[in-house]
TrEMBL record:
EC supergroup of this enzyme: transferase
Name of the molecule in the record: Thiamine diphosphokinase
Domain Thiamin pyrophosphokinase thiamin-binding residues, every copy: 149-208
NCBIfam families recorded: thi_PPkinase
Molecular-function annotations in GO: ATP binding; kinase activity; thiamine binding; thiamine diphosphokinase activity
The organism of origin for this protein: Intestinibacter bartlettii
EC number(s) stated in the UniProt entry for this protein: 2.7.6.2
Key word Nucleus present: no
Higher taxonomy: Bacteria, Bacillati, Bacillota, Clostridia, Peptostreptococcales
GO terms classed as biological process: thiamine diphosphate biosynthetic process; thiamine metabolic process
Length: 215
């Protein structure tokens, strides 16, 4: 079950982002308050809208009500962020994968919180990604992943939570073999894919992977 959650960060290219959303063929799309402004700009109607509705364009509320979108309104002063509330809804929908758009840009605290929140989503047994028109961000934990892209795409890796052990990189300009990547070390920044796919192995730990598209 694949769910897309639209947040109120920056979306640089609506056309490319819409192409990504349509290609992924999500089972559900959830708009987090102001994230619905992005969805509307792309002509996308969500299944659910969540938040205190202080950021969404007011004219869109009536429009989306006419489209039979389900609203779940929460007070402005609450213990959870809109991202957390959306993920809990996605979990009740039996999501196995969640992609976030509009998760970056704008306020740095929100961007960092959304990136860090990916770990907690992963721990729920749900595979998270952050997608933009320029990059994708995901986590590898005790696994080997084949990453598909294009020759020349930039791959960066960061140890998430603690040092990551047994990191092996193949088909990248700067390979690693069973290496230790220290927590938030810049060691893995700006590697380059030598082919249209590469391989990353993690023996122990959580590795944050950022693939910047070759555009």
């Amino acid at each position: 079950m694949k769910v897309c959650i639209a947040l109120n960060g920056i979306v640089n290219d609506y056309n490319k982002t819409k192409e990504i959303i349509e290609k992924e063929n999500y089972d559900y799309i959830i708009g987090a308050d102001g994230g619905c402004n992005h969805l509307n700009a792309m002509g996308i109607v969500p299944n659910y809208i969540i938040g205190d509705l202080d950021s969404i364009n007011k004219s869109l509320i009536e429009y989306y009500e006419s489209k039979n979108v389900t609203f779940k309104k929460f007070p402005t002063h609450k213990d959870q962020t809109d991202s957390e509330i959306c993920v809990h809804l996605a979990k009740t929908l039996n999501a196995t994968k969640i992609d976030f758009i509009g998760a970056l840009g704008g306020r740095i605290d929100h961007a960092l919180a959304n990136i860090g929140f990916m770990y907690h989503v992963f721990e729920m047994g749900i595979e998270p990604r952050i997608l933009t028109s320029e990059e994708e961000i995901f986590i590898i934990h005790n696994d080997t992943k084949i990453i598909k892209g294009k020759k020349g795409d930039t791959i960066s890796i960061l140890a998430l939570k603690k040092d990551v052990l047994g990191v092996t990189l193949k088909k990248l300009e700067y390979p690693l073999n069973n290496a230790r990547v220290s927590y938030l070390s810049p060691l893995g920044i700006s590697n380059v894919m030598l082919e249209d796919e590469c391989e990353i192995t993690v023996e122990d730990g959580y590795l944050l992977v950022i693939r910047n598209l070759n555009i």
